[in-house]
Amino acid sequence: MSEPWEAEVFAVPDVAWQAHVPPARHPVPARYVPELLVGDEVTIGVPGHYFLDGQVVAQAGRQTRPQPDGSDEQDSLAVAAPYAFWLARAFPDVRMIVQWWPVARTWVYRDAVQPGGHPGHEASTGDLGGGSWLDHVRPTLHEPPVRRPRAARDAGSLTGRTLRLQHEPGGWSWWVAVSEPLDRGGDFVVQVMHPTHYWLAQAAFERPERARAVPLHRLFVYE
């Protein structure tokens, strides 16, 4: 019979969560998301023509505004490109270019939720995206597409792409790759930056320590 201390000495930490696949992301019309805050990301567009991901809510609240195309006034959100938003936040003297975009043409991506209200994650790497290119063909442009996760190691070039990392059990965060995968003594890693620092680095010098190495197997992209 083993002694109690042996169970502690030979216990293997449970790190399986580090490779959990994040849930799919679904576009939710902004009119159903009243709690949007300054700094939240949204997707804007003109259904049937184009969509722009990664835009940032620049001002709190919503206002009724005339539309650029001359149509009637609509409930609108102040949005800005991420570079303009983060630059103005870091340097208040810099004027932020903001546009008022109709709420009816704005979406917010949210994680898929399992029955019972709990955010889910894909069951295995077999559920990841990356099948046939036909999987991405859509019959209409009525709304932005569902985004599905794919292991970063299978996603080709990574520099400049947004990545998702589970930094603690159940806790997900977003990063931007600032390198391709690197071999560091047999460990495959990617240098990443927090989105705020990534955008600011394009306007002002950022300290090298802003970039950190993250194991490649823990990173995912969305497609």
Automatic annotation (TrEMBL):
Full protein name: Uncharacterized protein
Organism of this sequence: Cellulomonas aerilata
